Amino acid sequence: MKKTAALLISLLMVAALFTGCTPNSDKNAFKGQIYFNGSTSLAPIIASIGSTFTEEYKTWNKVDPSFPETDIAIYVSSGGSGAGVKAVLEGTSDFGMLARAIKDSEKEAIKDYHEYMVAKDALTISVNKNNPICKLMDDISSDLAKKIFSGELKYWDEVDPSLEHQEIVVVIRDLSGGAYEVFQKAIMGETLISENAIQSPSMGALATKIVENKWAIGYAGYGVYNKNIDNLFAFKVDGVEPTEANIIDGSYTIQRPVMFIMDGEPTKAQQAFIDYIYSDVGKAAIIDNGYIPSK
Amino acid sequence: MHTSLDKIVSRIIKLLAAITALLLVFITLFIARESIPAFKQIGVADFVFGSKWYPVAFVGEPSYGIFNMIVATLYVSAIAVAIALVVGVGAAVFLSCQANQRQRNLLYPFIDLLAGIPSVVYGFVGLMVIVKCFENLGRSAGESVLAGGILLSIMILPFMISACSETMLKHREAYEKTSSALGVSKWYMVTELILPASRKSILVSMALAIGRAMGETMAVMMVIGNSTKFPTLLGKAQTIPALIALEMGMVEVNSLHYHALYAAGLVLMLLLFAINAIIMSVKQKVLE
């Protein structure tokens, strides 16, 4: 008796595996799923906005009465900005997420290019607040920053003779991360970052390292800098302070756009979700993740 | 009825055992398959002995050489095993020969608990205690191979202690009465009888510990600084698991960089197999 029951249950479970696979025959039918793919920086933001959206409405007819009563499903996968562009080109995803400016070649390849700027991400050049250099200068030239990060200047007294003879501890993000690329383009140019730099696995770890080490310097992201504002000191770069206004108008240059793109016009359902991203709920999620909403 | 049921059960168990063995084969095959493009394009020698890791070329050409990472992985593990061997064998001798049953019952759970602490917690402690300690001693940055080695030695201690002390306890039970009847002192018994008899289990525990040490990712990544230069004792370095963990999340799928990370994983696995094979052959020699 028990065995028959077990058999029945397992058969049911196998059957359940296939129930999700009903073929979607009608192309013009309402599509309840939205797919995002791309940047690992944007993915958590879209995923969190997506889950609040799904929790709030559950089915599409509650978003807009003209929509059918289908479940809302927003799928976010991350594989880097390059994968985002590729997913849009190949049509495997509705939206591609990017945490960098789009290349002209990529833009040309997409037939009906639409972009949606979500946020700006900036990097501050930060040191520990107890570092005596904070009292000497509040402005770093991009040339000096380049010399420090490339390892050309190794000790603080080489930056200013009045400082102690202490090694400069350079903290960066890992080589393949987006922040590395932004900093390389904005500050380093053709110069390589020192091999002696500490690679932090996350922005949080990078900021913690600077907070914990008096002689450290690193490119803390704008969001993480603001969370540690009591213990970090961010330089002006070439005279421009890293403030929200300066980042949005583009005068502070160590920054990158965070956006998503698509090929063609969004459907009504997709538009509803895009509007939700630009709503106050979406903005809050963007700020929570340490970025500056662009609109 | 019972015999047929037994047959079925025994078949199922055999199948499960086969699946477990096959898992290892499949994992190795999968990693090998994913790393073939990297070996083809970079070349095995350039990949294993190349000293420059610069996979995303913002300036100049990309370069994929993991030699520094291989050395760092071996270096950190060797330090960890060396420290853990001394402390672990000492602790095992204490637990098996000096402590009484009550003390043992009290201490064993603590040692087992050491093994249960998540590695990220170890990493955090390492960052706040070991790295900080180096910095207070005058290093500008405490992240170093030595810091990683010390932290790892604490993490592998429970494996060494529990593998050694059980056999030592058995040996003590075997030799104790004869030793005391012959009027031999306890420490003579430990150094001349128990320790030599436990060589095999010490080697086995080393094999276990090295495997654990070389594969440890999170804790080491947090205290070693992840710099790609050649490792020195007090300098920063990067291990292979740390390299993979740091870069796998960002890498573009199916790019050369992606395959190179798989290849690094394959090299790590082969290194582990080789080291285990060496330890096993040493064990054979010891037994002879």
Poorly predicted runs of chain A are: 20-27
Largest sheet, strands/sense/barrel of chain B: 2 strands, antiparallel
Second rung of CATH, namely the architecture of chain B: Orthogonal Bundle
For the biggest β-sheet of chain B, the strand order reads 1-2
Structural class of chain A: alpha/beta
Count of separate DSSP helical elements of chain A: 14
Helix content of chain B: over 70%
Q: Which overall shape of chain B is indicated by the principal axes computed on the Cα atoms?
A: globular
How many independent structural domains of chain B?
A: 1
Q: CA-to-CA gap between the ends of chain A?
A: 65 Å
Instruction: Based on Cα principal axes, name the global outline of chain A.
Output: elongated
Radius of gyration of chain A (CA) equals 24 Å
What is the CATH architecture descriptor of the largest domain in chain A?
A: 3-Layer(aba) Sandwich
**CATH class of chain B, anyone?**
Mainly Alpha
Mean pLDDT of chain B: 89
Structural class of chain B: mainly alpha
* Fourth CATH level, the homologous superfamily of chain B: MetI-like
CATH superfamily of the largest domain in chain A: Periplasmic binding protein-like II
Count all strands of chain A and give the number: 12
The most extensive interface between chains reads:
A-B, 35 and 32 residues
Question: How many distinct domains of chain A?
Answer: 2
Written description of the protein model:
The complex is a heterodimer of chains A (295) and B (288). Chain A has 295 residues and is an alpha/beta fold. Chain A has 2 domains: 3-120 and 257-293, D-Maltodextrin-Binding Protein, domain 2 (3-Layer(aba) Sandwich), CATH 3.40.190.10; 121-255, 3-Layer(aba) Sandwich (D-Maltodextrin-Binding Protein, domain 2). Helix content of chain A is 41%, strand content 22%. Chain A has 14 helices and 12 strands. Chain A has helices at residues 2-19, 43-57, 60-63, 81-90, 104-109, 133-136, 142-150, 156-159, 178-188, 203-212, 222-227, 244-248, 268-277, 280-288; strands at 33-38, 73-78, 95-98, 113-128, 139-140, 169-173, 198-200, 216-221, 232-234, 236-237, 255-263, 292-293. In chain A, the strands form 2 sheets. In chain A, strands 1, 2, 3, 4, 6, 7, 8, 9, 11 and 12 form a 10-stranded mixed beta sheet that branches. A two-stranded parallel sheet of chain A has the order 5-10. In chain A, helix 9 (178-188) links the parallel strand 6 (169-173) and strand 7 (198-200). In chain A, helix 2 runs antiparallel to helix 14. The longest helix of chain A is centred in the N-terminal third of the chain and has 18 residues, at 2-19. Chain A is elongated, with a radius of gyration of 24 Å. Helix content of chain B is 78%, strand content 1%. Chain B has a two-stranded antiparallel ribbon. Chain B is mainly α and 288 residues long. In chain B, strand 1 and strand 2 form a beta hairpin. Chain B has one domain (63-287): Orthogonal Bundle (MetI-like fold), CATH 1.10.3720.10. Chain B has helices at 2-42, 44-49, 67-98, 101-116, 119-136, 145-181, 186-197, 199-215, 218-223, 240-248, 256-287, and strands at 53-54, 63-64. In chain B, helix 4 runs antiparallel to helix 6 (145-181) and helix 6 (145-181) packs across helix 7.
